[in-house]
């Protein structure tokens, strides 16, 4: 006779650095249902626009999440620029994109490490994070910070990144490649990794579309959607861009997609550095938004599509700032993926959506 | 035998309402480049195993009971490190409507480690400083004394308590009759949050 019980998972759990609480309804070892409860990280930062002016708020927007910080500050700055009808120089767009792609590499390497930790491969965790430190070193040498870079301003960049530094970035990435390939080889070809990942937490393409899954989580289920393919900003100058898609929809496919996206990001950076224009880095705007002026931007964060909306009210403070982040889209997919899995696989499946709780709750 | 807790302090990490920046730096300080493990630091998920409590991010109504519960589950001697400026004072978010303040609004803090985001070097520095306090507490405990007279707990104002109209300073809520250091202990039984340390694995 099967016995039903409810197991609380989190908010403090070693597999996740972030607080996510799930009530797992289980029958023997099978999860019947997962009920998420969020709100542990809610700070209410969208409302801070009333207390901080448009330029100060850039720093707050960047601190929505420390992993995708670059993306958030780029998204906020470009949304404000659209609201104010400012055209930023090409170099600004290029440098923002390069930093954004670098943050994708660091985010995916971080994720790969946590995945290795979740399936109990401690050495692989350390290898991934050691490799990731090289990206952080680039951030530190070019912008001064390891996590929070604060390089964006509304209208441009705070400081330029010299061509020689950009060449150095490409060199570092090229030097990383052999190490990275060995790492990927272990993740994708090692028998013990494969056994943990294959066929676990499967989501079909149909379900993925119905649950509006975004980012690598959706692409692993065959959803051919990546905001970068619309060629916004510097992405327009890429010779070609194809979203990386896998079809299996299991944990292995999610790992595969992210592994390939790191290489893709390295290629994008290399191409952009070769093509970067020299038309200045813009300057901080002195304009005040008109009452009712709006700006919207959609960008592809490491975790998927993120939407930014700003509305002015004629003063230096914004009337409204709104973000829709990828993880809030993906939580529905997470609860779906958890149905019917073994309790031992739960931490890993939660991890494979790459949840970013502080993005979700803000 | 010369016994010291600080020779291998086990740490537990909890993300209050941090932006993740400090969390990943706390984790990075344990990985090979910075390698806090050379000081015997081991990351654990179980509060009963842990000696040092690393908290990142500020506290809010939802996570305050969780922070207190983890703290209360830890055994003496124990140390609390507030990692990052949000954990110290609320940081850039201190004016946000859902932020009560730094971690010292919930539990006594022994070491304040600033930074936005905190750097791994600062994390290690704070852990080493906490080790010293840990040794002092252990010495007091072995001599039959009260470890709450050492470190941050000795001067703690009791943080905040849930009053009728939201959170108020513990000194006002308790009408000043309870010693400040007992604030955390008194709040321990009232939490109805699910067991924080349950591991599904």
Give a written overview of the molecule.
In chain A, a hairpin with a 5-residue loop joins strand 7 and strand 8. In chain A, the strands form 3 sheets. Chain A has a 3-stranded antiparallel β-sheet with strand order 1-2-3. In chain A, strands 6-7-8 form a 3-stranded antiparallel β-sheet. Chain A has a two-stranded antiparallel ribbon with strand order 4-5. The mean pLDDT of chain A is 87. Chain A has one domain: Orthogonal Bundle (Cytochrome-c3 Hydrogenase, chain B), CATH 1.10.645.10. By secondary structure, chain A is an alpha+beta fold. With 201 residues, chain B is α/β, with parallel strands linked by helices. Chain B has one domain: Rossmann fold (3-Layer(aba) Sandwich), CATH 3.40.50. Helix content of chain B is 28%, strand content 14%. Chain B has 6 helices and 7 strands; from the N terminus they run βαββαβαβαββαα. In chain B, the strands form 2 sheets. In chain B, strands 2-1-3-4-5 form a 5-stranded parallel β-sheet. In chain B, strands 6-7 form a two-stranded antiparallel sheet. In chain B, strand 1, helix 1 and strand 2 form a beta-alpha-beta unit. The termini of chain B are far apart. The C terminus of chain B is likely disordered. Classes of the chains: A alpha+beta (362), B alpha/beta (201). Chains A and B meet through strand 1, strand 2 and helix 4 of A and strand 1 and helix 1 of B.
């Amino acid at each position: 006779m099967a016995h039903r019980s409810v197991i609380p998972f989190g908010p403090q759990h070693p597999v996740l650095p972030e607080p996510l609480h799930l009530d797992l309804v289980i029958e023997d070892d099978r999860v019947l249902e997962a009920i998420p409860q969020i709100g542990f990280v809610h700070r209410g930062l969208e409302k801070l626009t009333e207390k901080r002016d448009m330029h100060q708020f850039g720093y707050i927007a960047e601190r929505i999440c420390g992993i995708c910080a670059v993306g958030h500050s780029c998204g906020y700055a470009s949304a404000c620029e659209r609201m104010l009808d400012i055209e930023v120089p090409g170099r600004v767009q290029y440098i923002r994109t390069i930093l954004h792609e670098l943050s994708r590499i660091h985010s995916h390497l971080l994720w790969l490490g946590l995945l290795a930790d979740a399936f109990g491969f401690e050495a692989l965790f350390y290898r991934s994070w050691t490799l990731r430190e090289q990206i952080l070193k680039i951030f530190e040498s070019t912008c001064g910070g390891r996590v929070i870079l604060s390089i964006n301003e509304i209208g441009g960049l705070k400081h330029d990144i010299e061509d020689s530094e950009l060449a150095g970035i490409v060199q570092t990435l090229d030097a990383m490649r052999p190490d990275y390939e060995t790492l990927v080889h272990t993740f994708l070809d090692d028998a013990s990794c494969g056994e943990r990942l294959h066929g676990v937490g499967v989501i079909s393409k149909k379900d993925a579309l119905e649950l509006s899954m975004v980012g690598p989580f959706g692409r692993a289920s065959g959803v051919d959607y990546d905001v970068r393919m619309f060629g916004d900003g510097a992405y327009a100058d890429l010779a070609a861009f194809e979203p990386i898609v896998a079809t299996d929809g299991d944990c292995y496919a999610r790992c595969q997609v992210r592994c390939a996206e790191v290489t893709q990001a390295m290629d994008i950076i290399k191409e952009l550095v070769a093509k970067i224009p020299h038309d200045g880095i813009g300057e901080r705007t002195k304009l005040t938004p008109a009452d009712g002026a709006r700006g919207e931007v959609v960008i592809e964060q490491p975790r998927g599509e993120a939407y930014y909306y700003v509305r002015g009210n004629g003063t230096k403070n914004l009337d409204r700032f709104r973000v829709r982040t990828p993880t809030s889209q993906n939580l529905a997919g997470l609860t779906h993926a958890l149905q019917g899995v073994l309790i031992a696989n739960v931490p890993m499946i939660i991890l494979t959506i790459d949840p970013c709780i502080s993005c979700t709750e803000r | 035998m010369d016994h010291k807790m600080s020779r291998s302090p086990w740490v537990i990490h909890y993300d209050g309402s941090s932006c993740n920046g400090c969390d990943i730096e706390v984790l990075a300080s344990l990985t090979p480049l910075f390698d806090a493990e050379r000081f015997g630091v081991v990351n654990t998920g179980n509060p009963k195993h842990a000696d040092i409590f690393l908290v990142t991010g500020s506290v809010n109504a939802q996570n305050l009971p969780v922070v207190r519960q983890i703290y209360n589950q830890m055994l003496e001697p124990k140390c609390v490190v507030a990692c990052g400026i949000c954990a110290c004072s609320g940081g850039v978010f201190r004016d946000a409507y859902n932020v009560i303040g730094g971690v010292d609004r919930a539990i006594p803090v022994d070491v304040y480690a600033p930074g936005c985001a905190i750097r791994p070097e600062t994390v290690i520095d704070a852990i080493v400083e906490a080790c010293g306090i840990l040794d002092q507490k252990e010495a007091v405990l072995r001599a039959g004394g009260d470890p709450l007279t050492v470190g941050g707990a000795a001067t703690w104002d009791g943080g905040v308590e849930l009053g009728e109209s939201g959170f108020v300073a513990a000194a006002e809520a308790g009408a000043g009759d309870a010693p400040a250091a007992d604030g955390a202990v008194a709040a321990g039984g009232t939490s109805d949050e699910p067991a924080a340390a349950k591991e599904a694995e």
